[in-house]
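Example record

The entry below shows one chain as it appears in the dataset: sequence first, then structure tokens.
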Amino acid sequence: MSFRRQRNKTSGFEKGDEQKMETMTLKEIISAVHGSYGYPADTAVTEISTDTRTISKGSVFVALAGANFDGHDYAAKAMELGAEAVITERPVEGARCIIVDSTRKALLDAAGYYRSKFDIKLVGITGSVGKTTTKDMIACVLSQSFKTLKTQANFNNEIGMPKTLFGLDKSFEAAVIEMGMNHPGEISRMSMSAQPDAAVITNIGVSHIENLGSQENILKAKLEILDGAKYNAPLILSRDDKLLYSLKDKSSGRPIMYYSLNKKDCDVYASDVKLSSEGVSFDINYRGEKLRAELQCPGEHNVRNALAAFCVGVTLGMETDKIIAGLAEFKPEGLRQNIVRKDGITYIVDCYNAAPDSMKAALSLLASSDTKGRRFCLLADMLELGKNTRTYHKNVGEMVPSSKADRLYTFGENSQFYIDGAVKKGFPADACERFESRKAMAERLSEELKEGDCVLLKGSRGMKLEEVFKALTEKS
């Protein structure tokens, strides 16, 4: 199996950055946000910002309010720094205010108006698990044919997503926009702003079930991605998800494209999957053809993500050889299934998010590792799982024996249930330990790890399990 990388045409921005957008007039922005303004409005605007640290001449500052801050307190400061106006919910002394009912909605409205200026192919993506990896794969694919903007970092909410849209300029031909949510209505508002030409839903899991109550309600919330989509925008779904497949007869004329790891009764499916610790190769079956594809990342679940990206490519008219080239270019980075080798030890760093499905995928990566040493499974709590939290953690623990782990170390309030589940399925109790702190876990590992060992680190973002990784790898 050979792997290759190519230079692509994908762009985005890092957390904290504000993009310089194409110039608009203040009058356009006032109209877009349905605001009230009592000053001359022919001024040119080159930036819309939510952070006074990025304010310069030509900016408009949006005064957002949060649980621990209120942007209205910085409105006058924004004017001192050169802002042309400030979008607020009330008058502020020392500031030329565009008064709106909601500054959060105004940010989305302004981004939606700005997005409508560009004739681009915009793909919206959501799902309970795998949406960020799939988004990055789609961007790699589209970049083979189009200059593509994509969501960066965790800019997938009602504040981050508009910032991504403001990164558009006339040079872009496509965009891949990720939409996350915690509550009903959030994806609908983002979709209305982004106006997708195609939509992808990766799966319906149990993330945020604490807020939404059931998987059926999660499905309804994810389907809000269609609220702002074109009437004929295709919906790309996993055939392997029961709730998504239940939509096959409920499309109301909207085209639906299904993909699957092995079910042949759909538009695109995989076969002849070859797994290794370095990556995976497989056939993509599409319209009677078999197309051999390769990924630089291991795990069968990544084949499913790649199939979604393939569907997007063909939906947008790309040649299949370019789609295959884009998939070969993809490589995970950061805290998502990133494989790092240091001092002869392999680390599978997957600390960005966690839910039962992604836990299962991570454990399968540990099992597929070709390490000559021991396998250490480090699990931290999964968050926002509601009343069934204990059951979900215990179920994940029951999967640990299949990961071929030699040690199970856990951290978090509910992490004992991982151990309970593992022991129930025959994992040795004396190979398990629950730690009260990340520091204690790191100290134990620093004493035990040897060259040739493999370490999986998996937990929800709020558990900060990456601090254990940093402690182990920065000590040398």
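Notes for this example: The longest helix spans residues 300-315. Residues 1-8, 13-18 have pLDDT under 50 and may be disordered.
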